[in-house]
Amino acid sequence: MSFSRPASFSFIGSTRPMGPGDFIWLAALGCASRGPTTADAVCACIDHVAAGQWAPSAQLVCDCLDEMARARHLSYAHDGRYGLFSSTTQGFGILRMMLSLPIERPTTPLGQVGLRLKLAFLDLAQPEDRLQHLQDLIVAHREELARRPAPCESCQSPGCFGRMWGEHHTQSLRRDLELLERMRAMPQTQLTTRREGCSQDGLHINCILN
Amino acid sequence: MSFSRPASFSFIGSTRPMGPGDFIWLAALGCASRGPTTADAVCACIDHVAAGQWAPSAQLVCDCLDEMARARHLSYAHDGRYGLFSSTTQGFGILRMMLSLPIERPTTPLGQVGLRLKLAFLDLAQPEDRLQHLQDLIVAHREELARRPAPCESCQSPGCFGRMWGEHHTQSLRRDLELLERMRAMPQTQLTTRREGCSQDGLHINCILN
Questions:
Q1: Could you tell me which of A80, A163, B105, B206 has the fewest CB atoms within 10 Å of its CB?
Q2: Is the pLDDT of residue A15 over 90?
Q3: What is the pLDDT of residue A90?
Q4: CATH no., domain A20-148+156-188
């Protein structure tokens, strides 16, 4: 009887949608892939990107960081405090896998968080993977739009204001889809280095640490 | 020692935000205020208005309906099946109170559901209350916009796509605010009868029963 394990394994994709545990891993590996970072910065990044839709406790984030460090996805700087960590080669591989996980319906609360975190770190994916992930998000949005109910004359509720808001919400979803299509059409050369992100096209850069 | 209760009490307002229990009461009283309705129609209305953000079980909806009927907020038709119910005078009063409850931050999942349900039945409020409720929603959206982080040049994460999506999301929030301001400016005469809702201004009417 042998307890030996295979020396390596290759990830062949997953169809399960992203869940809250994945969100923390994605944020931590994404932040660490841009350069040395801290637990505080990972929490601030999640708060900024999720924009109030979801907020894990600091303890849960630290537990995940600990698990990632023990699995050698993250490497702590030996500065005596163990506060600063970076991604490892293994960590980059896990990040690529995380970016490929499908999201739930993009209009659900967890779907929105997954979508935003995926976009926050999509510049770190390989160009061909990036296009595929954008295509997957576009398909999810088209399916969501197809689910919107057709207009009908015989409905009592919701009333006037509810129907205005519902129509407005469908238009917002169409604008989301259009933005994803514009992202897919962006020339790959517009994307800049891993550390800096891009600032052209009048895009604003938000500082998550303030 | 007396166990007697006061013969009546008056509601003097509440500052607690709307929660999931209130959502079912608001939807049931709102649907029943438009005319005789059923538990199925209330469930369909919640599914339609919440658009996937929140979905109570049918059993929970039925338990709430039962509670409302016992408190005489709803009145069942005596057709032998007890399937069809309407609102009572007491029920109209409770609906007005429900419409006055503040919502959580409008970008949170429960805040969105509360906002949509409130708008779905806002045409049933008294004109002066309606303007006040719209004003409250406008203030909540302005506060949310004020919370958005200021642009900053020194931020590493989120990357290019995340910043595009964040800016897009802020614009969506501005459009939500503009729509609420347009609703507040609508002449009260544009609102039609309780049963029919309004269909002018090119608004689409969605049938929740299909």
A1: A80
A2: no
A3: 95
A4: 1.10.10.10
